[in-house]
Amino acid sequence: MSSVCLLLLLLLPAVAAQTYRWGPCPCPKVQPNFDLQKYLGRWYEIAKLPASFERGKCIEANYDVRKDKTIQVINKQFYKDKVRAVEGTAVVQDLHDMSKLGVSFSYFSPYGQYWVLSTDYKTLSVVYSCTDVLRLFHVEFAWILGRARFMQPETFRYAEELLTSEGIDLTTMCLTDQTGCKEF
Q: Which pLDDT belongs to residue 10?
């Protein structure tokens, strides 16, 4: 028991800037018949659950297929007067459920969930990620993405309602500042 308490104490600083909840991860429904080819390209972050690695503005992600069939992920943001970019790799983890991807931004880190809950490929993508910690609590991320920097209010409400209906608490969700952005 003392080792579990020690582990929790060591993990708390790592999750302090994240969104964490008690209990195991929920298991939301994902996009049926997901078409990866239609999903590729640039997506702008409209809103998110807090994430320590996303503190800037003008946040966007670009997805493209590499020759080895993995997906190149390039995330960019404007932070502390500089454009910051990070490259990662996404993979389809289950060929029977193409909307459940795994993403890693380091050779040494395991793939984290990147589940596309809903997308129309043209205006909206709702993405969820969750990691269980000993089934005692979980760290979760959720993103509302758009193909443009700004989204119609009714589309945004649909995304919020979808996340809420899947048991995802949005009380800490925050809008991403997309004003005054230049193309990277």
A: 42
For 10, 46, 60, 162, the CA distances from 152, given in Å and listed in that order, are 42, 11, 18, 16
Over the stretch 40-82, which tens digit does the pLDDT of each residue have?
A: 999 999 999 988 878 899 999 999 999 999 999 999 999 998 9
| pLDDT at 51 (0 to 100) | 85
CA dihedral 62, 174, 149, 117 (to 10 degrees): 50
Which H or E run includes 141? strand 137-146
**Residue spans of the chain under pLDDT 70:** 1-17
Q: What single-letter DSSP state applies at residue 5?
A: H
Written as six digits, the tokens of 141 are 């991320």
Q: How many CA atoms lie within 13 A of 156 on its CB side?
A: 15
> CA–CA separation, 84 vs 89, rounded Å?
17
Relative to beta strand 19-22, strand 41-48 is unpaired
Give the HSE-up count for residue 176: Cα atoms under 13 Å, Cβ half-sphere: 32
Contact 75, 68 (CB under 8 A): no
End-to-end CA separation in angstroms for the chain:
50
pLDDT of residue 20: 75
Nearest to 61 by CA among 79, 88, 82: 88
